[in-house]
Amino acid sequence: MLPALIIGGVCLTGKTTLAHAIERQADFRVEVLEGDEMHTSVAIAKMRAGEPLNEQDRESWRARIGVRIAQRPSDRLRVITCSALTKFTRDTLRNYGDCEFVFLTISQALAELRAARRLMDEGEHFFQPAKYPRLLQGQFRDLELPTEAEADCRVVNAEDLNLDAFAAELANRYRVA
Question: For residue 15, which of 44, 35, 40 has the smallest C-alpha distance?
Fold first, then answer.
């Protein structure tokens, strides 16, 4: 059985874009799950109001993602987008089953630019760091980049990424037999 592929990074690094590019590039079944959709209504309301989440807020979110790791199907690749900002979160997710991480990075300046675009283009998303800068600041503050000790993590600078080529590489790596 394939590991679950977790695409992590701060907001606006392109996690969802990469997940769907893998889905398009694959010649086998890929299931994309959005970590944003696994937050509780209380956590979503908090972020919608511009309040960063704390570890208690993230507890049930991690558990919901963990269940998706534990119950991944054997006939397709399950790709889950979630920030996985801290080693604690990544370790917690590992406890649910076999998973590997692709961790995308971008500069805070680029994240701020993308946040402004999101506000203009997708005004409905509950996480609006252009409207509430402390949301983005909180993500960069909490960020613990994976180190070499986390052998199941691949850190990738998303600013220099050829998205389609990278998605094709990942689809090939995780090909379902």
Answer: 35
Burial 130-145 (b: 16+ CB within 10 A, else e): bebeebbebbeebbee
CA atoms within 13 A on the CB side of 14: 21
Domain boundaries, the chain: 4-173
Q: pTM for the full model?
A: 0.92
> 4-173 maps to which CATH number?
3.40.50.300
Residue 130's pLDDT band, with cuts at 50, 70 and 90, is low
Q: How far apart are CA 177 and CA 12, in angstroms?
A: 32
Q: For the chain, how far is it from start to end, CA to CA, in angstroms? A: 10
pLDDT tens per residue, range 65-123: 999 999 999 999 999 999 999 999 999 999 999 999 999 999 999 998 888 877 776 55
